[in-house]
Amino acid sequence: MFTRLKERRRAQTVMGHRLPEPRLTAMAAVWGIVYFGLPVLALGLALDVLVQWVSGRCVGLWCYF
């Protein structure tokens, strides 16, 4: 299976012009952060609020500021 992923595709051409290879862009990184980073951050914040509410002790990083 991995050999199929590692194989280079033949260069695609349109009317004799070679098309560029697909690549990650800055917008892909932004959307990756939005879809994966923000939910993890929100979950951590919710857990910190819950621990502080139950124990009365702040354990979050921002408590040190």
Low-confidence parts, pLDDT < 50 over ≥5 residues? Answer: none
What percentage of amino acids are in beta strands? 5-15%
* N→C terminal distance: 50 Å
**SS class:** mainly alpha
Radius of gyration: 23 Å
Major beta sheet summary: 2 strands, antiparallel
Global outline: rod-shaped
What this model shows, in words?
The structure is a single chain. This protein has helices at residues 2-6, 26-55, and strands spanning 13-14, 17-18. The chain has 65 residues and is mainly alpha-helical. A two-stranded antiparallel sheet has the order 1-2. 0% of the residues are buried. The model has no long low-confidence stretch (mean pLDDT 82).
What are the SSEs and their pairings?
Blueprint lengths: L1 H5 L6 E2 L2 E2 L7 H30 L10
Antiparallel strand pairs: 1-2
Labels describing this entry:
mainly alpha; 65 residues
Question: What's a concise summary of this model?
Answer:
With 65 residues, this protein is mainly alpha-helical. 54% of the residues lie in helices and 6% in strands.
